[in-house]
Amino acid sequence: MSTIRVPDGATVTATLQNDDPGVEHNLSFSLPGLAHGQTCAGPCNRAQTFTASGAGSYYFLCTLHDMVGTFIVEP
């Protein structure tokens, strides 16, 4: 499992790099109000930019597969 730490209020640009030919993945964060990232079949890249607001421990994941990590917004 991976962990990403950012300060509260940070602007984050997260890029999904999918190198799995023909396999769909996405990158989503469990922050309130943030939509799931776009799905794409590899090879592909998808970027999303958002503000990390609300200190706490969240997660990031591919909603299509059992791939998950911890996303911490520090006060």
Write the layout of secondary structure elements.
Blueprint: E1 3-7, E2 10-18, E3 24-25, E4 28-29, E5 40-41, E6 44-52, E7 56-62, E8 67-74
Parallel strand pairs: 1-8
Antiparallel strand pairs: 2-6, 3-5, 4-7, 7-8
Uncertain stretches of 5 or more adjacent residues: none
Radius of gyration from the CA trace? Answer: 12 Å
Q: For the record, what is the CATH homologous superfamily label?
A: Cupredoxins -  blue copper proteins
What proportion of the residues form beta strands (DSSP E)? over 45%
What is the residue-mean pLDDT, rounded to a whole number? 96
Q: Taking strands numbered 1, 2, ... along the chain, how are they ordered across the largest sheet? A: 1-8-7-4
Major sheet characteristics = 4 strands, mixed
Specify the structural class.
mainly beta
CATH architecture: Sandwich
CATH topology: Immunoglobulin-like
